């Protein structure tokens, strides 16, 4: 990793009180929720904390993805572009929510942009750190990957349901317009 990356994201070397707080946060994140306290001891040091200012861009749609983010505090908006080029708000995320996890498994560009809508503290969990975790602690890495695929599968299922609902509404709308 380059020096600029490390200047923006500091690896956490934290005291017991903050470590307990971070453990509580991670237990609520599906990617880490079934890790034991012992296993979390190997994850906490590879998380990177960063403060973001209001309106600061976290990443832009189309950029290479490098990891997922966990909101410790603050508010993050996930935005995409419509066919007409207008910004579309996909989601607003708050404390103890996460985003960007797809970039841990695919090499594709970001599918949306993320921006802080208020001052926020985020933890980054980056692909090189995941790969190192898998290499050094395969059982922990396997749990994280399994949980990650479960999260991605659930999100895909939710998207499919929403797509089917939208298609149903579209059919209903076309039918009501045709009846006039």
Care to give the gist of this entry?
With 180 residues, this protein is an alpha+beta fold. Helix content is 42%, strand content 24%.
Structure report:
The chain is of the alpha+beta class and 180 residues long. It has a single domain (3-178), classed as Jelly Rolls, CATH 2.60.120.10. Helix content is 42%, strand content 24%. The chain is built from 5 helices and 9 strands. It has helices spanning 3-8, 16-27, 37-43, 127-136, 138-178, and strands at 10-11, 48-52, 57-59, 67-73, 76-81, 87-93, 98-99, 113-116, 120-126. Strand 5 and strand 6 form a beta hairpin. Helix 4 (127-136) crosses helix 5 (138-178).
Examine the secondary-structure arrangement and name the CATH architecture.
Sandwich
The CATH superfamily turns out to be Jelly Rolls
| Low-confidence region ranges | 1-14
How many strands in all?
9
End-to-end CA span: 62 Å
Structural class: alpha+beta
Overall number of structural domains: 1
Largest sheet: 5 strands, antiparallel
- In N-to-C order, the SSE pattern is HEHHEEEEEEEEHH
Side by side, the strands of the main sheet go 1-2-9-4-7
The backbone outline, from C-alpha atoms, is globular
Report the C-alpha radius of gyration, rounded. Answer: 19 Å
Can you give keywords for this protein?
24% strand, 42% helix, alpha+beta, 180 residues, globular, five-stranded antiparallel sheet, Jelly Rolls
């Amino acid at each position: 990793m380059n020096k600029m990356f490390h200047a923006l994201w500091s690896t956490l070397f934290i005291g017991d009180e903050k470590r307990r707080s971070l453990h509580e946060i991670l237990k609520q994140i599906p990617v880490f929720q079934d890790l034991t306290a012992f296993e979390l001891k190997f994850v906490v040091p590879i998380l990177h904390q960063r403060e973001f200012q209001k309106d600061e861009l976290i990443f832009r749609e189309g950029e290479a993805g490098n990891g997922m983010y966990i909101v410790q505090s603050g508010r993050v908006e996930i935005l995409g572009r419509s066919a007409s080029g207008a910004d579309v708000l996909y989601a607003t995320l708050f404390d103890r929510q996460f985003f960007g996890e797809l970039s841990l498994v695919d090499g594709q560009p970001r599918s949306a942009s993320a921006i802080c809508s208020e001052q926020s503290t985020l933890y980054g969990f980056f692909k090189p750190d995941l790969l190192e975790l898998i290499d050094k602690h395969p059982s922990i890495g396997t749990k994280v990957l399994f949980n990650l695929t479960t999260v991605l599968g659930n999100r895909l299922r939710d998207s499919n349901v929403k797509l089917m609902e939208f298609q149903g509404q579209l059919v209903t709308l076309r039918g009501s317009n045709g009846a006039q």
